[in-house]
Amino acid sequence: MKELATITPKEIIYNLVHLKQLIFEVTDACNLRCKYCGYADLYEGYDERENLKFPFLHAKLIIDYLYAYWKKAFYQGIRRPVLISFYGGEPLLNMPFVQQVIAYIESLPESGILFRYGMTTNAMLLDRHMDFLVAKDFQLLISLDGDDQGQSYRVDLAGKNSFQRVYSNIQFLRERHPVYFDTNVNFNSVLHNRNNVEMIYGFIKRHLGKEPMLSPLNSSGVRKEKREEFEKTYRSLSDSIGQSSNCEILEKEMFIRGPHAALLMDYIRKYSGNVYRNYSQLLLDSDNLWYHPTGTCLPFSKKMFVTVKGKILQCEKIHHEYALGYVDDNGVTMDLEQAAMQYNGYVKKYQGQCQNCSVRCHCGQCVFLLDDTGKENAKCNAYSTKRNLEEWRSVALDYLEKYPDFYRRILQEVTIRG
């Protein structure tokens, strides 16, 4: 039986030194009122929206805090990429902050970091700020739920569908900066009961030449009194594809963006025996390696998210109550010993379930996305028996047998990371 590991402040320091992404919640204000928004009435677990803007001083203090760690890994001639992301609310509502942050980063002494910039936007103000975004080579993720009908949950402050303005701004960007549009712009579409995969995918590919990322509604943190409304709005990605006029053709076009290809890649990565995340897995007896319970990312192993109120979290997707530190006018406060204890405490609640779970070594379940993590008798939604695992394997292998071309395409076109 593999031993369960806990994290220490030393591991958190290592993650800070090698941080891959820093995300600022630029503002909690927004110029849309999307019905399904994670900060709207359907959900709980976030700080109250107060139309705040992120103070530049706090961003500077965060950057200085991290810069001190980044210098420790500085080697002359080697540059490591770090993505600085701007999130909201709607980040274009606080564009002066974005410009100040980038100007400050560009003024820093050499640290071996190659800074890149990214933004998720609703594109309502894109016409005003696109030239700056292009000049700084932003990776731009635009929220668009398809055509006018698909976009109908994304309304402005007056309740008007945002489609015409958003689509017009997107076309303006495409005409004004065609090369940038081709290389730097992607789309994210939320699936709900007013659109479907076939409509979304067909519209965006046909009119914008892009293959959108498709996301179902977030099922974590739904208010109990809103559960029925959520269920009426929610649509499954697999079900929506299955209901399309020609699901096989659609899924072949979507390829890795489709649910079955994702299932197959998951199977190949975790259970084929041909993919290893590190040399320890390759060279040592994997049955005796230590592993961290659950699939929860270690603090800052991938990203750091700082809210407009100064809370420091390990991800923008989790409840704000799980903050590991904060920043205010006096500086950054983060007790790494306490952060490690807090993380270990939440994860430890699932230790007994992990030890008996058949997918414990390849778990993808983040405990901070489980609704009862704060409770003593917390239950993991991803718990799997051996029978569950065998059924899952059978589904994957049956699909490979039915569509062998998918396996060939995965081998030839996809890089599978452990």
UniProtKB/TrEMBL annotation:
InterPro entries: Aldolase_TIM (IPR013785), MoaA_NifB_PqqE_Fe-S-bd_CS (IPR000385), rSAM (IPR007197), rSAM_sf (IPR058240), SAM_GG-Bacter (IPR026407), Sulphatase_maturase_rSAM (IPR023867)
SUPFAM superfamilies named among the record's database cross-references: Radical SAM enzymes
Pfam families in the cross-refs: Radical_SAM
Annotated ranges, domain Radical SAM core: 25-201
Keywords: 4Fe-4S, Iron, Iron-sulfur, Metal-binding, S-adenosyl-L-methionine
Origin: domain of life: Bacteria
Record protein name field: Radical SAM peptide maturase, GG-Bacteroidales family
Cofactor(s) of this protein: [4Fe-4S] cluster
Organism for this UniProt entry: Bacteroides fragilis str. 3783N1-6
Listed NCBIfam families: GG_samocin_CFB
Lineage: Bacteria, Pseudomonadati, Bacteroidota, Bacteroidia, Bacteroidales
GO molecular function: 4 iron, 4 sulfur cluster binding; metal ion binding; oxidoreductase activity
Keyword Nucleotide-binding: no
